[in-house]
Amino acid sequence: MAVLSKRVISVERENCVACGTCIKECPRNAVSVYKGCYAVVDLQLCVGCGKCAKMCPTGCMETAERGA
Amino acid sequence: MKTKKKWYDYLWIWSILFFTLGFFNILFAWLGMIDFLLPVFLAVFGGNKFFCNKLCGRGQLFQMLGAKYHCSRNKPTPSFIYSKWFRYGFLIFFLAMFANMVYQTYLVAAEAAGLREAIKLLWTFSIPFGWTYTAGSVPDWIAQYSFGFYSLMLTSLLIGLVFMVLYKPRSWCAFCPMGTMTQGICKLRQKIKND
Question: Percent of chain A, pLDDT > 70?
Fold first, then answer.
C-alpha cells in the first residue's frame, strides 16, 4: 500500500462548470469530469499539490486534509 | 506521469487560424459552426463535455496566453460570474443575439434587407469589413451569415481575453454560453437517467 498524501483536493460541485481546466493541469491524471457535470478527483492518485485549484476559473477546488 | 501531448492539444492553432482566415475571406466564418455544433452533438449523444475538456481551441489559447505567457493576473473570478442566474442569463442573451443574426440573414435572403459588409463588435460597434468579401461570389445571405457569425466569434473572443487578463486564464469558461449549454444538457441527461 502506497503512502497517501496528507492533503487532497476537494471539489465544490455546485460551482463546477465542468470546463476541464483541471484535467490538463493535474500532473498525476487524477482529475476527470464526471459525465459532463462536474470534476471528480481520484483520491488514491491525488497528492494535493493544488495545481488544479490554482487554475480553476470558478475556484471550486481547494486543498483539504485527507479524510476531513 | 504527465502524458504525451495529443493531436488535440494543438487546437489553439485552429482558434488563431479561424480569425486569420476570416480576416481575408469572411466566408471562412462558416467553419466556426464546427465549434458550435460539435460540443452540442457530443453533449446530446455522448453525454460528455469532451469538447470543453479536450478540444476547445479557445480554452487552450487562453490557458497558453494566461498561464504560460503570464498574460493573466490570476485573480479569482467574481463569484456572480459563475452563479447560475448569470450563466444562464448570458446563455439566453447569447442565443437571442444568435437568433437575431439568423433573422438578419433571413431578411437578406428574402431580399427585405441589403447585405452589410461589416462586423459588429459587442453587438454595438460596426466595423467595415468589406475587403473580406467580393460582392456576388455567393448568395448574399451566405455572406451575411458569415459577417454575423464572425462578429459573434470575435466578440466572445474579446470578452474572453479581457476576463483572461483580469482574472484566471480560463475565466471565460465560467460563463461561456457553449459550456453552460453543454453542461446543462449533460446534467439533464443524468437527471433523466436517475429518475
Answer: 97
